[in-house]
Design goal:
This protein has 690 residues and is of the alpha/beta class. The protein is built from 27 helices and 16 strands. The strands form three sheets. It has an eight-stranded mixed barrel, surrounded by four helices. It has a five-stranded mixed beta sheet with strand order 2-3-1-6-7, with helices on both faces. Strands 4-5 form a two-stranded antiparallel ribbon. A hairpin with a 5-residue loop joins strand 8 and strand 9. Helix 1 packs across helix 6.
Length: 690
């Protein structure tokens, strides 16, 4: 049950407060050890070494130092070692020099077996030596100075001296270890002590309280000393079971990272201790393209990849920062102390850089990336829940804009209690099939022929009336509903296309999908199954995707795009001209149609700049052998200018607004009979199907 966030074996930088603290305690501890060794009677030690009891105690001390008693997985300073009981008993019976020597040997053996860094071993020898020295000084004040040649056996009247010596021992060890942890993790020593003092004190009380009994047994029946292993084992295993349950409740099973529960506790502690001149940062990180790994290589490989991601993240943050896994491929990072937003962005960039290092698994190389959303206390939210929500908003902004890292911006937050209620209503509307598709025609500008019908989603809310798509579509995109919504729209559009085609109205139906939907591996399967079931050719449906798809290289190599091309479903590029993509990229994507954004089209009669932009796009599209569609055609003047510049099709209120299916069918019959559709790209296929 190793802690992946444990970075204590990394040596501190020279000159830092942690380095100074560790160096100072190490010097003091080894000085005390040297003084104790000078006071050790060699003859007495040699005589003691000839007794089996000495070696039994040494073995028990070494074994007791190998595994700590853990009572809580959240204990900041780690566990309590059972060796304490035996070395404290040696202190009481044989004196300080023998006790510190035995403790130093046990700690050194622990370092060798567990491969601890040398600076940790040195510090542990020093702090345990200082703790035993403090206890020895207290005993000396009561006139108790044992030696190997003159062992001491406590009686009932010595309870006060033993109790005070035990308190001194515990206080020194707790203070020194907590001080090191506080400096290492940049937390206040008060917070560290509060988190660990209670559980540690209970175990120390039990171990130190048993030490006088060990001394009595050592005096009267030395051969019975090993029997103390039994109660120690009971304590150890009971504590281990308790700790394991606590660990399971507070940690992720796959990665051993803290889970949401522990993240909440850690965040609330950080908020309570935040200083006025510092911030508390909460990051939400979502892996990009992780689903492809799961779908391609299977979940076991995906699980191993998540474990590697967890390791990379925990070694890319500072000691004291918390990396948690919230579920799936979503992680959170808590920065209990961060200077400002710029520093938070630097940490986020470091996390992304660690993720983007290629990963080799199963003989294959995987390229990962992540989107990070940042929220800061007190700038953006006063508590954990709101911090997490706003980090989530920022993360989705990073995904949408493909920027990688985004800081929460209130003016871009589309969430509110009303919107959350609306999301619930939208989920119910999708489940109950209450959403409807309306259809807007695409008309040839030169001859008025019907080239297609674009399916546009409409939602009439039972309380709020008509909800515009500009409100509920972004809401769905920021939630788990978008995929379900896309599946619903494609299914409904295919059914309507089938009704038209099988009644003689062979018109192409266009469906708007997001870039994320276009890269969904399930999309080609849904389309292929739907077309086969409804006996439609692939060209009966067209997918419209925004220009943003051109921004990344993934669209040109993704298996879903290739599968759609093989299937024969055409693509249309919507809202062209609003992005900043390279025009060279347009030729690389297998689209058949480019739709010019309405924001340019509407102004071509008044603005020479917009006229030149639209004309340039039309010329470019024609030179690439693609079809051009002008959106937002609302006047004859605009339609005439578009026709003059060679634009093939128009769409807008001049021809008709989006109509319900029944009304669209009547409109289609009127226009189809007068001028049958010029169904470019599938004329021969229509003939074969008829």
């Amino acid at each position: 049950m190793a802690d992946p966030t444990d970075t204590r074996d990394t040596g501190p930088r020279v000159g830092t407060p942690l380095w100074a603290f560790l160096a100072g305690i190490t010097v003091m501890g080894f000085t005390a050890l040297a003084v104790a060794m000078l006071r050790l009677d060699p003859a007495g030690l040699a005589e003691l070494a000839r007794t089996p009891l000495f070696w039994v105690l040494t073995v028990l001390a070494v074994l007791g130092e190998l595994r700590p008693v853990m009572v809580s997985s959240a204990t900041a300073v780690g566990g309590t070692y059972p060796s304490t009981m035996f070395t404290f008993a040696v202190l009481l019976h044989f004196g300080l020099p023998v006790a510190v020597l035995m403790q130093a040997v046990a700690v050194a053996m622990n370092g060798i077996v567990t491969r601890k860094a040398w600076h940790r071993v040195m510090f542990n020898i020093a702090q345990s030596t200082l703790a035993l020295t403090a206890a020895g000084v207290v005993l000396g004040l009561f006139g108790i100075v044992p030696r190997p040649a003159a062992p001491w056996v406590p009686t009932g009247s010595d309870m006060l001296a033993i109790t005070l010596a035990g308190i001194a021992y515990f206080a020194v060890r707790a203070a020194l270890v907590s001080g090191a942890v506080a400096l290492h993790e940049r937390r206040s020593i008060t917070r560290v002590l509060r988190a660990s003092l209670g559980p540690q004190s209970l175990v120390y009380a039990a171990l130190l309280g048993l030490a006088p009994l060990v001394v009595v047994v050592m005096t009267h029946a030395p051969s019975l000393v090993p029997l103390f292993v039994a109660p120690l084992a009971a304590v150890y295993f009971t504590a281990t079971l308790s700790m394991r349950r606590d660990h399971q409740a507070m940690h992720d099973e796959l990665t051993a990272l803290p889970n949401r529960k522990m993240l909440i506790v850690s965040t609330e502690e950080a908020l309570a201790e935040a200083r006025q001149d510092e911030r508390v940062g909460l990051f939400l990180l979502d892996l990009d393209r992780f689903k492809e790994v799961n779908d391609t290589m299977g979940h076991p490989v995906g699980d191993r990849l998540l474990q590697m991601v967890a390791h990379r993240l925990t070694h890319s943050v500072r000691p004291g920062d918390v990396v948690a896994r919230l579920g799936g491929d979503e992680f959170a990072v808590l920065l209990p102390s961060i200077r400002d937003a710029h520093a938070a962005r630097e940490v986020a960039a470091r996390l992304r850089a660690a993720l983007r290092e290629p990963v080799r698994l199963e003989g294959m190389s995987f390229d990962l990336d992540g989107s990070v959303g940042i929220a800061l206390y007190p700038d953006h939210a006063p508590d954990f829940e709101l911090l997490l929500q706003r980090a989530d908003v920022a993360m989705y902004l990073a995904k949408e804009g493909r920027t990688g890292v985004e800081l929460y911006q209130p003016d871009k937050d589309r969430n509110s209690p009303e919107r959350l209620n609306l999301l619930g209503d939208l989920r119910r509307a999708v489940d109950n099939r209450e959403l409807r598709l309306h259809y807007q025609p695409k008309v040839g500008l030169a001859n008025g022929a019907v080239h297609g019908m674009e399916a546009l989603l409409r939602w009439r809310h039972p309380v709020h009336g008509q909800i515009p798509p500009s409100e509920f579509i972004p809401l769905a995109e920021q939630s788990y509903l978008m995929r379900q919504l896309t599946e619903y729209v494609i299914e409904a559009a295919l059914e309507q296309a089938a009704r038209w085609w099988h009644s003689g109205l062979r018109v192409q139906v266009s469906v708007n999908i997001s870039a994320r939907d276009l890269l969904d591996s399930a999309l080609p399967d849904q389309l292929e199954a739907g077309l086969a079931k409804l006996r439609l050719p692939p060209s009966a449906i067209q997918l419209e995707v925004t220009e943003r798809i051109l921004m990344g290289d993934q669209a040109y190599t993704h298996e879903t795009i290739k599968a759609l091309a093989v299937l024969g479903v055409p693509l249309s590029l919507d809202d062209f001209g609003t992005g900043y993509s390279s025009l060279i990229r347009l030729q690389r994507l297998a689209v058949s149609e480019v739709k010019i954004d309405a924001s340019f089209v509407k102004r071509i009669a008044e603005s020479d700049d917009d006229y030149r932009i639209v004309r340039s796009i039309v010329d470019l599209v024609r030179s690439l052998g693609l079809h051009s569609v002008a959106e937002g055609v609302e006047s004859d003047d605009v339609a005439i200018r578009l026709t003059e510049m060679g634009c093939e099709m128009g769409q807008g209120w001049l021809f008709n607004e989006a109509m319900p299916p029944a009304e669209a069918t009547v409109w289609l019959r009127e226009h189809f009979e007068s001028s049958p559709g010029i169904e470019y790209g599938y004329r021969s296929e229509v003939t074969q199907t008829a």
